[in-house]
Amino acid sequence: MKVEPTLYGDRKVYSVAAFNRGVAQWLTRLPTLWVEGEVTELRRQDAWQTVFFTLKDPESGASLAAAMPRGQFDALRLDLQNGERVHVYGRPELWEQKGELRLRALSIERFGLGAHLAALERLKAALAAEGLFAESRKRPLPRLPRRIGLVTGSDAAAKRDVLTAIQARFPPARVLVAETYVQGPRAAPALVDTLRRICAEPEIDVVVVARGGGSFEDLLPFSDERLVRAVAECPVPVVTAVGHEQDTPLCDLAADLRASTPTAAGRLVVPDLEELMAGLARARDGLGRGTRRTLERHSARLTHAAERLRRAPVLLVERRRAALAQAGGRLRALSPRSTLERGYAIVRRDGELVRSAGTVSPGEAIAVEVADGSFGARVE
Predict the structure, then answer these.
(1) What pLDDT digit, counting tens, does each position of 236-283 carry?
(2) Sequence-distant (≥ 6) Cβ neighbours of residue 378 within 8 angstroms
(3) Rounded to an integer, what distance in angstroms lies between the CA atom of residue 309 and that of residue 307?
(4) CB contact at 8 A, 113 and 83
(5) Model pLDDT for residues 128-141, shown as the tens digit of each residue
(6) d(Cα 102, Cα 91) in Å, to the nearest integer?
(7) Are 239 and 141 in contact, with CB atoms under 8 Å apart?
(8) Sign of the torsion formed by the C-alpha atoms of 265, 155, 67 and 69
């Protein structure tokens, strides 16, 4: 479609839409070409039809917006990450609505790791070899922190998300907020200094380092070696919530716990007050039931002991009576009288027991004792 101006006397005036459309049509005459740069600000969503990213010149810092249909991008199966150096084949185009120049990508080839990413990989390997990222040195978070430190920027969103999550989950929590630079060349030393100062505050039991999302370059201070070492050396547990979930700066690896978002970080450092109160109620009920059961057991034991004490004298008398009866029975069994009752007799001569027939003579008088009495007799 030909772009026509509006005539104002001898002056030709183009509308913004006409101007943009004319430039866009002229750009279609340019050939397709290869462009080299580092991938930054890569944005891909399943709901979007287009994948957006920025190509950056690592030498001059110049940048160029680029876009590619999501189907073509996914078909390449490159799994690109921010910081990688690529060659992009495409043609320039103008987005008429915004008047923005961008590269319409037709193909992408991985050229190699970008300078920043390569440096980060070397630093990551060196720090890992020192053991700064080892799971064995990770510390558990305190159950009920006395005071929580929050290191963040002036970014209202990240700070608000952390504080809102903490307040909603555990209203009595005490939070000390320390704002500092979180982007640019001054960010890394400022973050290190702020982290050390907030850890020196009284009663700080855990520290949250939070920053909202940003480009690959924006998050570079959180991969600075000075900050990574400061996080590893922090005297209290550190929770990091930097960027979006797919971002993983090196301080995340050194932290005791990484949260996917600032909101998640706020939820991690404090318990849920409702759950805590419910648990305390359950514990109180359990203690009450346990106390009642203990009292019931002791009461039963006391009742049993009292019953035994009450019955003990009776049982003792019965046992003694039985023992006496047994002894009496034995005595009766051994008594001569019992022998006489069985039909035996005791024979005496002159008061002496006659144990043998040869000890008496015929005509001698003897005395015979039987069970029910005695009588005299004469030997024949």
Answers:
(1) 999 999 987 777 889 999 999 999 899 999 999 999 999 888 889 999
(2) 363, 364, 365, 366
(3) 5
(4) yes
(5) 999 999 999 999 99
(6) 9
(7) yes
(8) positive
